[in-house]
Write a structure and sequence with these properties.
Shape: elongated
Low-confidence stretches: 1-21, 1091-1138
CATH topology of the largest domain: Jelly Rolls
Largest sheet: 6 strands, mixed
Number of domains: 7
Number of strands: 80
Structural class: mainly beta
Length: about 1150
């Protein structure tokens, strides 16, 4: 049996050598079951490196695998040594075994070619916890090959814990262990993979310049037996990453140029075709390309990949490779497959780099306010796949309560790249507060958070707002303690940020209102019954903080006057126009009280609504303004001092009180011998036309003033008034005068209402623009305690233009005062009296417009239908067109010429239609049955205070008219029918802008019956035709017919007329219709009968007598009658045939 197995082994060995198609195990991996010559030894802690020595008998023996059999299932280390030099040639760790005693092996990363005639040792390291197998010379011959490619020499062993120790000892055994190896012979290609070191890359990496990453390298070497042909290479993916979607390209390159052993993009040559990814996770790609290897030729290849696949690989995942197989053309063989692992790539975690820019100086914040930059930081993203900053987590610190003090904690992106938080920055995240005092708050970004590798950095601001709960001196701080990105496992560099601790943050500051007296340094005069006297002035400053409120200001009175009884009112005003001067009627009233609560007592002003509101750095100036009743005594003093403030918001306090600090302000000296001028107005501008004359043409009030004495009499000589405003006061008025309120109505009623001139006569205007008008009073005597009211009244002259203003004031007076008397209220403030109204355009029918006309139709004609007048007031007005609404029974569309039925001409000013070019053609076009929109070919400017006239012309067709006249009118029906530049007011004038009527009639006379009648007249006539109009006359032979004409049948028939007495034949019948030219009938009238026929009634010289034809039935009369009847019948027959 042993002999048969030996023969079989020899056949296998030699058969393999001849065919050169597969690898051969030297021992053939025989059974290790205990039996004859095979012993299993029990577990021991001793370790040995055990195997055997052999001789290589032939050339081109390539060792591809090392293996072993042990009485366990563990993986074992195996090694190959040069027996002569004891040098380690190769080592490998096997796979585990399915059962104890089974053979197990591992492929060499780089197969080893043995040298013919050289001795080698193959060994395997025993486990420290297991047993071993011994094979002696009684074992089957397969355990001791002595012929063929390999000859077994002896066992080898060494006591050691490492497989790299050369087994220098020998014994009588054939094998300990045992160990074995596999080899190939003949031409072949051997795969040798380089394990390498995994490269750390980002999940989107595609290599330098996008040319790929060399993730593994291996060599294919042909042995020296001869040439071989490579057909394909199989690359199998390994590692924790998903190889089916992490790549965008996988490809092999042969190292054909550039730096040897280094992947050179653009130089090295692709092997096979590129693939997008592996077909499955840990799948295999086959790269096919035929390559011829010469004997002993070695080629190097690179596994080149591009990541950035359809699914980015998470950080920490690995991507490794193995040459799992190659295909070679027969008769060559392959070895070294599957190769060892090529350590490829490890996915890096991308990181945002944080740089804290926050000021190192603690800021001051206030309750109920926001916009505080708690943290300022910049985020960069140096490398990695496209990413987004998903969230940042803040941690809080400080003495304030972070869970209750905040109104909001928000994150803003520096949108305008200013490097500072501004109102234009975009909010990208917000939360209400921190989770707890000194807790955390996570801000999840909703925008402006995308990053690309090496792209621009982004700057952010953590901006907080406080509610009303923080109190002065509390502190609040923060720092970034965690970040996340849209790419999983994204980290942050320099986090926590700031790295050295928390930001300086904010301390809650103390809010305050600071009072400062601003009163005049000297005492001012006041007068009994007067008002608007400045008692004290002071300022209130709110230096910093959120919007706040001040509710109450308290003053304390001083002085010799009675502060309870002598005031009519005490008012607090705010300096509304910020000119540091109290302006009557301008500054804003804050509050009013009647008086102090006692002599030298106190009063409190209440600030409400907007007046109570203060913003940071705001200073308001106030005026305490007094009005006195008639109770006070002459030369008494009144003073005040701000002594308290209350109802201040957000815990604010008052500083600078009392104000003034040294005592009350100088205040007022009350005097009683004064002449007081009180300006009553006007205080609001009235809109007027530039030619306004006032009610009843009695003028308008430019200024209203009351003059009164208190304790002494005065003589007032004159009052000088000064003009103001944007208008020209020297030219705008046509009349100016001072009137007295004679009827004491309190309003100007004019002379017709009882108010009389206060001067001898009226003037024309002010002496210059912004000049003066002096009113010398006719009655200047003022007794003590006298009050008189005066009105400065004007009438406008029509030269001012829109928007100009006209105001006045009492400028000075000439008067004779009593001892110690003073005038008060002079100069007064300016009134706000008038503003000239918007431009206005009045449209009307012009003087000299054409009257109504009757025109006979039947032939085309032109007619001036109307003349419209445009008049401008308050300013120039530019007119660009008119819309005319047709009227009457005629049709503008069918009865007027198609090309120019309606025309408009601008009159040259002479009031007569001259036609172009004397009059300017503005519009020409067809008539329209409805609205005729006439856009001017050139605009017409009507100057302020002037007028322009426009002719309305019709070009009437010959087909227009009828027996009943067709009538034509045109009108501007609405103010919107006048097209203008801008928006002046459009007014309808008088007479209204409507033309008179054009009547077009078809006038004909077609017949008259009868056409004969007695000489005595009285024959009733019937006349037919068309266009018969009253007044109507008919003549026969120039003699008017008698009777009253009756026009009927639609103006086609005349009855009611009778022939006049007459004689003759074929006399013309002429009809005159209305104002039309007379028209002759187509027939004539003949008279019959009478006293004489032929000759005379008496004999002539020589005694002869004439022929007397009687009208009583003589033969001549009868014959004439028959002739007349025949003629009439003949005529009627002709008319019927016609």
């Amino acid at each position: 049996m042993w002999r048969d197995r030996f023969i079989a082994l020899v056949l296998v060995v030699f058969g393999f050598a001849g065919a050169a198609q597969a690898q051969t195990w030297v021992l053939g991996q025989p059974s290790t079951a205990a039996g004859t010559g095979i012993t299993w030894y029990g577990a021991t802690t001793s370790q040995w490196n055990m195997g055997y020595e052999f001789t290589c008998n032939v050339s081109n023996v390539t060792v591809t695998h090392l293996g072993c059999a042990w009485p366990d299932t563990e993986a074992h280390a195996c090694a190959l040594f040069n027996a002569t030099t004891q040098a380690l040639i190769a080592q490998v760790t096997t796979s585990t075994a399915a059962t104890a005693g089974a053979w197990r092996s591992g492929a060499l990363t780089t197969p080893v070619v043995l040298t013919q005639g050289q001795n080698y040792v193959v060994a395997s390291l025993k486990s420290a916890t297991q047993g071993y197998i011994g094979v002696n010379s009684s074992a089957p011959a397969a355990w001791h090959p002595t012929a063929g490619a390999i000859t077994h020499i002896r066992d080898r062993w060494a006591s050691t814990t490492t497989v790299t120790t050369f087994p220098s000892s020998t014994s009588s055994q054939w094998h300990w262990g045992p160990a074995d190896f596999a080899y190939t012979t003949g031409p072949g290609i051997t795969v040798a993979a380089t394990a390498g070191t995994s490269q750390n890359v980002y999940a989107n990496s595609t290599g330098t310049g996008g040319n790929g990453i060399s993730a593994g390298t291996f060599t294919l070497s042909a042995n020296s037996s001869g040439a071989a042909t490579l057909n394909s290479i199989n690359i199998t993916a390994q590692g924790t990453g998903n190889d089916s979607n992490a790549y965008s390209e996988v490809r092999l390159y042969e190292d054909t140029g550039g730096t040897a052993g280094v992947y050179d993009p653009g130089v090295d040559t692709p092997y096979g075709s590129a693939a997008t990814a592996f077909p499955a996770d840990n799948g295999t790609l086959t790269f096919t390309q035929s390559q011829n290897f010469s004997a002993s030729q070695t080629r190097r290849y690179f596994v080149v990949v591009k990541l950035n696949g359809s699914t980015l690989a998470p950080s920490g995942q690995t991507f490794n490779f193995q040459v799992s197989d190659i295909s070679v053309a027969a008769p060559a063989n392959k070895s070294g497959v599957p190769s060892g692992t090529m350590n490829g790539l490890t996915i890096l975690s991308p990181a945002f780099t944080f740089t804290d820019n926050t000021s190192a100086t603690q800021g001051t914040a206030y309750p109920s306010s926001g916009g505080y930059v708690m943290q300022d930081f910049t985020v960069a993203y140096p490398a990695g796949p496209d990413n987004a900053l998903a969230s940042i987590t803040l941690s809080a610190q400080g003495s304030g309560n972070d869970s209750t003090a905040y109104a909001s904690v928000a994150l803003y992106f520096d949108t305008d790249s200013s490097g500072s938080y501004t109102g234009g920055d975009a909010q990208v995240a917000t939360t209400a507060a921190f989770s707890a005092d000194n807790g955390t708050a996570t801000l999840t970004l909703t925008g402006s958070n995308s990053f690309t590798a090496g792209g621009p950095s982004r700057r952010y601001f953590v901006v907080v707002a406080f509610n009303t709960t923080p109190t002065a001196t509390q502190t609040f701080q923060s720092r970034i303690t965690a970040v996340s990105g849209s790419y999983t496992t994204t980290t942050g560099t320099n986090v926590p940020s700031p790295t050295g601790g928390f930001t300086a943050g904010y301390q809650i500051g103390q809010l305050s209102f600071t009072f400062a007296d601003a009163s005049p340094a000297t005492q001012s005069n006041a007068y009994l019954g007067g008002s608007d006297f400045l008692l004290q002035s002071f300022t209130v400053n709110y230096p910093t903080g959120p919007n706040n409120t001040l509710g109450t200001i308290t003053l304390t009175a001083a002085g010799s006057g009675n502060d309870l009884n002598d005031y009519a009112s005490v008012r607090l005003y705010r300096d509304a126009n910020s000119n540091t001067t109290y302006d009557v009627g301008v500054d804003a009233l804050v509050d009013t009280v009647a008086s102090f609560n006692a002599d030298n007592g106190t009063l409190s002003f209440t600030l409400a609504g907007a007046e109570a509101q203060f913003t940071a750095a705001q200073t308001k100036r106030y005026y305490v303004v007094a009005a006195f009743n008639m109770n006070g005594a002459n030369n008494t003093t009144f003073q005040s001092q701000v002594t308290a403030a209350s109802n201040m918001g957000l815990g604010a306090n008052a500083q600078g009180l009392p104000a003034p600090a040294a005592g009350p302000a100088p205040g007022l000296l009350l005097l009683a011998n004064n002449l007081v001028f009180t300006l009553n107005g006007p205080g609001a501008a009235s809109t007027v036309y530039n030619n306004a004359q006032g009610p009843n043409n009695e003028g308008l009030v430019l200024l209203d003033v009351t003059v009164n004495t208190i304790a002494a009499a005065w003589t007032l000589g004159s009052i000088t008034f000064r003009a103001s405003g944007t208008g020209d006061d020297a030219t705008a008025y046509s009349n100016i005068a001072l009137y007295e309120d004679s009827n004491a109505s309190g309003a100007y009623d004019g002379p017709s209402g009882g108010d009389a001139l206060a001067v001898a006569s009226a003037g024309t205007s002010f002496n210059a623009n912004d000049g003066t008008y002096v009113a010398t009073l006719s009655n200047g005597a003022f007794a003590a305690s006298t009050t008189r009211r005066f009105f400065l009244v004007v009438r406008f002259g029509g030269t001012a233009v829109t928007g100009q203003t006209f105001n006045a004031r009492v400028d000075s007076v000439t008067a004779t005062p009593p001892s110690g008397g003073q005038t008060t209220g002079v100069p007064s403030s300016y009134t706000t009296s008038f503003i000239i109204d918007s431009p206005a355009l009045t449209v009307a029918s012009a003087p000299g417009a054409p009257g109504s006309a009757i025109v006979e139709g039947g032939a085309a004609f032109a007619h001036s239908l109307g003349l419209l007048r445009l008049s401008a007031t308050n300013n120039n007005v530019t007119v660009t067109g008119l819309t005319l609404t047709p009227g009457g029974t005629g049709d503008f569309a069918t009865d007027l010429a198609a090309a120019n039925g309606l025309e408009l001409y601008l009159d040259n000013g002479n009031g007569t239609f001259d036609g172009a070019p004397t009059d300017s053609l503005l519009f020409s076009g067809p008539g329209v049955s409805t609205a005729n929109v006439c856009n001017f070919t050139s605009s017409v400017t009507v100057n302020n205070g002037q007028s322009r006239d426009i002719w309305v012309r019709l070009n009437v067709l010959g087909t227009a008219g009828g027996s009943v006249p067709e009538t034509f009118t045109a009108m501007i029906a609405n103010t919107t029918d006048v097209a203008v530049v801008g928006s002046p007011a459009i007014l309808m004038g008088t007479p209204s802008p409507t033309t008179n009527s054009l009547s077009v009639v078809i006038f004909t006379v077609t017949g008259v019956t009868p056409v004969t009648g007695p000489q005595s007249g009285g024959t009733a006539l019937t006349i037919t035709g068309s266009g018969f109009l009253a007044p109507l006359t008919v003549t026969i032979g120039g003699v008017l017919c008698t009777g009253t004409p009756v026009i009927g049948a639609g103006n086609t028939q005349i009855t009611g007329l009778m022939t006049p007495a007459g004689a003759g034949s074929n006399l013309p019948i002429v009809v005159t219709s209305g104002s039309l030219p007379p028209k002759a009938a187509p027939v004539q009238f003949s008279y019959f009968g009478g006293s004489f026929i032929g000759g005379t009634t008496g004999g002539g010289k020589g005694g002869g007598s004439g022929c007397n034809a009687q009208a009583d039935g003589s033969p001549w009369a009868a014959m004439l009658a028959l002739l007349a009847l025949s003629a009439a019948a003949f005529t009627l027959a002709r008319l019927r045939r016609a």
